[in-house]
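Why does residue order matter? Because the sequence determines the fold. Keep that principle in mind as you read this record.
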Amino acid sequence: MTITPPRQLFIRGLTKDGRSFRPSDWAERLAGAMSSFRPGGVQAGIGAFIGYSPYCVPRIVGGVKGVVVSEALRGIEPMAWDFVMNFARDNELQVDEHPPADEVGAAG
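Structure:
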């Protein structure tokens, strides 16, 4: 039996008409809001929420800031998935299948 890895989507910081999305730190804010959704659930302790969730990570792809979202988030918390996807839809952001790893850089 072959297990298919979850789809990875890239929410680009560009609107459907090609304008840059503002504010400039939107990707970090969105990923920060999703930081508690992690493998194994919520963790306790002093460093539990330091860093981003592996399911929603800010990245720069092709020189455009955005967020890589794993469809695994849908299985863990459907409302979090809906929040992220509705954010993209409501702000008319471009959403693509995640690009090859060599095109991806950390957002900063």
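DSSP finds three helices and five strands in the chain.
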